[in-house]
Amino acid sequence: MTAEIGILNKTSVVLAADSAVTVGRVNKVFNNANKLFPLSLYEPVGIMIYNNASWMGIPFEIIIKSYTRKIGKKSFNKLEEYRQDFILFIKENYSSFVDSNQIKDFIEMRLYEMLDKLMEVCKKALEDKCNTLKDKPSEEEKNEIHERIFFETIDKISTIKSEILPDFQNYKLEEFKTEFKNYINKILPGFYITYNLTRNAKSTSRIYKALFHELICSFSQEEDYSGLVIAGYGSEEIFPTICDVKIGEIISGKLRYEFSSLGKVTQNKSAIVRPYAQRDMVDTFFQGMNPDILKKMNEIIPVEFETIIEKISKKYPDVNKSEIRTYFKTGFKHINEKLKTYASKEYIQPVISSIGYLRKEDLIELAESLINITSVKRKTSDYLQSVGGPVDIAIITKYEGFVWIKRKEIIDKDLNSIFYNRELKQL
User: Fold this and answer.
1) 421: in domain
2) Which of the ends of the chain has fewer CB neighbours closer than 10 A, N or C?
3) Does 226 map to a domain?
4) Rounded CA gap, 256 and 157, in Å?
5) Domain contains 54
6) Beta-bridge partners for 51
7) Residue 124 burial (CB count, 10 A)
8) What residue numbers bound the domain in which 18 lies?
């Protein structure tokens, strides 16, 4: 995994990234990955990679350096235009390296991942359902309940309103079925048998619809996508901008990608801080509380409220349970809103305001410290140490451009100079 951060104020951008990379199913971690690069050798623009460092088996480092060479001295008026042009570059120059077998492997992997996750959810729902029944259900009854829960969940996925990815606006379910029907139908029989589900045309059609919906709509947090962060200045911008894009695979000749919102420093917005990938410690620093604790609180409180409602209804049978439940839901909503307001006023806004006035040296120190504290947290926890190694840091200013502050040495300095000069001559 990765810990990266972009810190912007009116004078500069600081980008920082760790060096850890997780490889293979055994989750072996190496601390030698390059995730931060200049996107142009002539313009003040940088790029970082997070999550998956490759696209369809091609290292993003190769794609980025090829793009840098291709654009040469070309510039864009707005920073976000680099993002759009980079996506176009991938489509035009690298899609030809992706064969149909890779795409089918991806569909198979996505199908298994989606169904496995669904089964975990359904298993928990089955346990909860069985616990509410007075009489313990037989195995046959359990299978019936499980099957009903599974297909109800599948149908919910297909009806979730999510934004459709740009290249898939006109992509139809029938096109997807035509291209992948024979391949997916080889996978489903084993799935039906493994989980004792009834196999019929209607069930298969519902699974197809859910998978299609997952592929054409916005990325989920669990997906193994590649993330790219682009930051710096367009030629007509005096203040910096940061943006990112999530990139998935090619399906039916269409690229799965999703743009995030832009982060722009303006006259009225003096600073921006954007963490990427493993951001829990950065969020803790800014919010004053670990986000996992907030998440757990949001799980515990509704359960406790429901327990109180049940106790009240037993003691006072005439009480309207639905009315009390509404009061509790409203109260819980107000608690969350007040907590967010307090965190913003007392923690987030004061720090952001201070960052707007920090010197370049202080921005660099802050960025490195936030990456390091995430690394220390991983070292002292039970989780995989997926953040670590040297921290690469670069600063970008309007007229000095992209400047390395810290960069791990991978090759001899003289050899590095030879390669760099050769690149400049070829440009």
Assistant:
1) yes
2) C
3) yes
4) 19
5) yes
6) 226
7) 11
8) 1-270+383-427
